Amino acid sequence: MNRRAVIKAIVSCGGLFGIGVLLPRQVLAEWNQAAFSAETQAEAIKLMFGAEPVVSDEIHLKLPMAIADGATVPVSVITSVPNVESISLFVDSNENPLVAEFILSEGSQGEVLTRIRIKTTSTITAVVKADGQLLSASQETKVSSGDCG
Which domain holds residue 10? Predict the structure, then answer.
């Protein structure tokens, strides 16, 4: 192996490393900062989708009805609706109600399992965007301790 081959390999690896560093920044630049900064659930939904979702029995939102501590609340959203594009979670009493947005790739099963923080007793809403429709389901969860970490 000569000096040119070594230098060429180093430059190629450096270029690949540079691309790897830049790609996450491009992905993060696309998040909806206005919706995540909204102070009310209605405002966050409007900024996120531009329309109100329709309540649907096809969206199954599961989380505890009552919890002692809102620091880590398990949540699952499952739907059989085809062509799910995204699933978003809102907690109406949080300072910033939009707590998560999951963008699903084409052909993915409409299912999300995560943990969220809930400040006080609140209504949690899941909004599913599928085939140009906005569908939702909501559930109230009572928090006995106001400390969410």
Answer: 1-30
pTM of the prediction? Answer: 0.76
Q: What is the domain count for the chain? A: 2
Domain shared by 48 and 90, yes or no? yes
d(CA 58, CA 11): 53
Helix (H, G, I), strand (E, B) or coil at 10: helix
pLDDT tens-digit profile, the chain (149 residues):
676 665 666 655 555 455 555 555 445 446 678 888 888 888 988 988 999 999 999 999 999 999 998 889 999 999 999 999 999 999 998 899 999 999 998 888 899 999 999 989 999 999 999 988 999 999 999 998 655 54
Residues 6+ apart with CB under 8 A from 106: 83
* Token reading at 77: 């959203």
Q: What's the rounded Cα separation, in Å, for the pair 10 and 83?
A: 44
Whole-angstrom distance, CA of residue 127 vs CA of residue 87? 6
Q: Do 116 and 75 meet the contact criterion of CB atoms below 8 Å apart?
A: yes
Residues 13 and 73 in one domain: no
Indicate if 25 and 50 belong to the same structural domain.
Answer: no
Report the CATH number that the domain containing residue 125 is assigned in CATH: 2.60.40.2470
